[in-house]
Predict the 3D structure of the following.
Amino acid sequence: MRLIFILLCVWSIKVIADPADRLYELLAKSDSLTANFEQNQFTETGELIETSHGNVSIAKPDQLRWHVLSPFEQLIVTNGIWLWQYDVELEQAVRRPHPKNAATSPLMVFVEPLSRLREVYKVEQQSDRCYVLEAHDDKSMFTLMTLCFDAADNLADMSLVDGFGQKTEVFLQQLKSNFIPLPEIFEFVPPENVEVVIEEGYVPGI
């Protein structure tokens, strides 16, 4: 009887400490978030390529607005059906179907069920507040993703490593979670005199 009790305790500790369960628990706490961001892109040797700034809004299940304000304005927005990428300087807007899983779009980890998260990524806990997701498929757009949370369990920063070894770091500031977003912020109407391109596929890296 004592052996059975010990085995049950060990099993319980293992379940509670499962990194994927804990990460999913953190992601499930928020149905929406909005924040300002700083994004740094590096070469495979660690050389800084570019720093950009903007704001992001995410609402479950599939809504995203990623607005780069500097150095070059660009907008990526999806309502869960269509995904638009608008380059202000090029005066071009591209429409694609919304990506449907975390293998094609890292930000989908915020809305995927736990079973799908496990299917796409191996999850390890790097530290008390950071989790590393390693893609099972080496053909995924990003092979490694690290998510770090603050003391209030809000996402604080994330880093992505692609198949070429290039790294992207994103730091979130002035984050608000569980807000009620206006539906129109996830819609896009191309401005006049803008070239519109309709494509099948997804936007790499979002």
Q: What stands out?
A: Residues 2-16 have pLDDT under 50 and may be disordered. The longest strand covers residues 48-59.
